[in-house]
Amino acid sequence: MSFELTASIILKTAFGRSLKGSLMDGKGLEKLLHETTVVVGTFAAADFFPYVGWMVDKLSGLHSRLDRVCERFDGFLEDVIQEHLNSDKIKDNQHEDIVDVLLRIHREHVRSGATWFTMNNVKAILIDIFLGGIDTGAITLVWALAELVKNPEVMKKVQGEIRHWTSEKDRVTEQDIENFKYFKMVIKETLRLHPVAPLLVPKKTTAKTQMLGYPIQEGVRVYINAWVIARDPEIWDQPKKFIPERFNDNLIDYKGQHFELLPFGGGRRICPGMNMAMATIELVLANMLHRFDWKLPDGMTPEELDMEEGGGFTAFKKVPLKLVPVDNY
Q: How is the protein disposed in the membrane (predicted)?
């Protein structure tokens, strides 16, 4: 459910249509994205042994898996692009979706004689939007609900706050969320305990430098372990526990200015979709908590809830979360 919701939002923004009207059904797109993040997060020998590692990756089947994923993604994006190119609708700049904007930029570069912005560049940007925008938001929603169900006292407190401020409304608006102080703490604690991309996006050094006395050469790939940082006992008290109150009167935020909490990265390479992701997550989760009470199925207790993380580029919940919504009205 959370995947289909976030996918519909991104597809509406990028393609100007909902998930139901897309060129791939919801389950097919979810499977493709999941396979992509798993492959991207898989160990690649070539990263550590550049001259011979490619042979190991070929023998292990990694190359063929990458080829299959890329072929499916390329076919999907090619269909989307052709659909926009063949559309009879005349769009002005105020009603363009992201695909329209990228195709317009491509046409302008072709007319000017520039060759650096090709159709492959268009597809690469669309892949970034897909991988960075759809799966990540859905995963955060799942972890937030899982932690709230596993901690009933926190669930009761956050629902009480939301329903207090929206007692005469049937839904939560973006303006209402500004009043939800504890709710925002719950979001922060979810991002701390379950950063969607545990190792962030890999970086490369642009010059020789030193860190803690160790020389680091130019062109070295750098991984930032945001998962470990967010669970460091020297920074956080009881780091493995879900305690939203730790952010009460605490200036640490997730927007890249505090190195203790980096779910979106920081600096010039911070996630460009952070604001949209947070607006979506906050509005969706607030409405889910406002409208429904969420129960575990078949008499299951919070202690029995499996919180194991799946492996790959993203840290999704390995065992799917199944909850029963009870209408609050």
A: Single-pass membrane protein
Chain centroid to CA 326: 27
CA dihedral of residues 174, 176, 177, 181 (deg, nearest 10): 160
pLDDT tens, 95-112? 788 888 899 999 998 888
Q: In this predicted model, what pLDDT tens digit does every residue of 27-46 receive, in sequence order? A: 677 777 777 777 777 778 88
- Which amino acid, one-letter code, is at 84? H
Q: Measuring CA to CA, which residue among 125, 139, 127 is closest to residue 263? A: 139
Whether residue 70 is annotated as binding a ligand: the answer is no
Q: What is the number of H-type helices and E-type strands within the chain?
A: 12, 6
DSSP 203: E
- The pLDDT of residue 222: 87
- Residue-wise burial string across 287-304, b where 16 or more C-beta atoms lie within 10 A, e elsewhere: bbbbbbebebeeeeeeee
